[in-house]
Amino acid sequence: MSVICVCLSPGFQRSVIIDSLIPGEVNRLKSVVVDAAGKGVNVCRVLQRLGIDAFCLAQGGSNADELMSLARREGLDLRLIPSSGRLRTCTSIVETSMVTGSRVTELVEPSSPVDESCVNTMTKTVEAMLPSATALVFAGSMAPGYPAGYPARLASMARKSGAPVLLDVQGPVLLDTLAARPAVVKINLAEFAATFFPGRFSGGEHGGVLAEALVSADMMNAVSEVSRDHATSFVLTRGAESILLARDGEVRSRPVPALPAEQIINPIGSGDAFLAGMLAQLTLRIVLLENISRDIAEKLRRATQWIAALA
């Protein structure tokens, strides 16, 4: 049985290393690395490295051969559905001369639209794989061409087949998909607030009220309120700060072990690694095969003890 990771916005991740970026000047890079990327791709990659049977379904494009070559080179089980668009390249500029550690600037390209035939084949492929799936993971955004409510449709198919669903999505996609009763929703606190309480809390992931070390009572009550209204477990990451676990109105906080600044090179994809680590622990404990909803808060608490450093 395998974990199915669905990635509807795959592409290339180009990571460039530089001492310090000087806007408006010629900047010479120290090194360049290109990897297969996309949130679902990243989740699959970490699951496989943790010894969990997993594969990633994504759309291809006119440059799909290059992406598959990168995947084969690292032993990544990536399965691409044909599409006519060109896969995007996102770039991480990593500056290593910062006194407080490296600084990363992310340049994100838009995804090319997918064909209707790609959507139909993706749906049929997921449907055929679900009866033997350990879980279905849906992470990241959707390329243009996928219909509104598409993740909710896949999640409903998984629920009917008995495969638990884990989400890392936000905004309208998350609100739509909650009706399918996913087992776990993993997003960061800023995304959670923007989805359920737009404009109520100031700041974001790296600044303002939502980035403070201590979560306010107002925010804790808001998390509790949402979790009481939905039959799912919420795992809310906060970068280097504590993790919030919420279900049925109960909210728990789990600490994150601090890492020295010099060990933090590039945080891009850390949330995907966290989701994969959490799922790996749940799978290894045979929680998914028993009943992921049974005592899920306690099981998630134990699982996050092991993978909190991945946040």
Describe this structure in words.
The chain is α/β, with parallel strands linked by helices and 311 residues long. The protein has one domain: UDP-N-acetylmuramoyl-L-alanine:D-glutamate ligase (3-Layer(aba) Sandwich), CATH 3.40.1190. The chain has 10 helices and 13 strands. The strands form 2 sheets. It has a 9-stranded mixed sheet with strand order 5-4-1-8-9-10-11-12-13, with helices on both faces. Strands 3-2-6-7 form a 4-stranded mixed sheet. Strand 9 (165-168), helix 5 (171-177) and strand 10 form a beta-alpha-beta unit. Helix 4 (150-161) runs parallel beside helix 5, helix 5 crosses helix 6 and helix 8 (270-284) crosses helix 10.
CATH architecture: 3-Layer(aba) Sandwich
Shape: globular
User: What is the strand arrangement across the widest sheet?
Assistant: 5-4-1-8-9-10-11-12-13
CATH fold-type name? UDP-N-acetylmuramoyl-L-alanine:D-glutamate ligase
Per CATH, the class reads: Alpha Beta
Measured between the Cα atoms of the first and last residue, the distance is 27 Å
CATH superfamily: Ribokinase
Number of strands: 13
Report the β-strand fraction as a percent range: 15-25%
- The residue-averaged pLDDT reads 86
Q: Count of helices?
A: 10
> Structural class, from helix and strand content?
alpha/beta
The main sheet comes to: 9 strands, mixed
The low-confidence parts are 286-294, 305-311
Count of domain modules = 1
Keywords:
single chain; 311 residues; alpha/beta; UDP-N-acetylmuramoyl-L-alanine:D-glutamate ligase; nine-stranded mixed β-sheet; four-stranded mixed β-sheet; disordered C terminus
